[in-house]
């Protein structure tokens, strides 16, 4: 209910653009265009964590894109889930891990937020974006569904501000698959809003493999700026 009221308020009460800070539109067309610009790319955190599946990102984590992601996640500007979900859909398709048709469909498994973070924010931003992406994929003929298969099994601290090695240590062994959420051998795409060190996605992949499922790729809205300035591999 709290999320529903916040979404209605964001639609009817004018606010400055979440991306550039100008205007009174919530998000301006120019910033949405920036999010849509270019093609999704494979990104490589440096150093790349062991076990990280191929990661594809729709846009660089900078400027208007960074502003929109933070506004959606931390300020609850919920209508941003639509353009952010469309960007995530592009990253999923670019990965080549899903395709139209097929009997079993395709599972998008979001990296979970802690319960305290969800309570503080009033919503689960990654799951919300993933739901939008799955809807867009289904509209394009891909039988995609969001499967919130992962859960935290021990406390972790906030990853923000931690260096790469500390992020990996903070998350090591922290995730597990909920009983019955995934079938043995099931192919899944891990999804998140942004990748920085890759520690969260690597831990999610470890948990999925330990359950017997197959994390064939990962997709995010935004990744390191270096991927868009010629420093990526592949």
From TrEMBL:
InterPro entries, alphabetized: ComF/GntX_DNA_util-trans, PRTase-like, PRTase_dom
The organism's place on the tree of life at top rank:
Bacteria
Tell me which SUPFAM superfamilies the record gives.
PRTase-like (SSF53271)
Q: Where is the Phosphoribosyltransferase domain?
A: 179-225
One family name in Pfam for this protein: Pribosyltran
Q: Family per UniProt? A: Belongs to the ComF/GntX family.
Q: What is this protein called?
A: ComF family protein
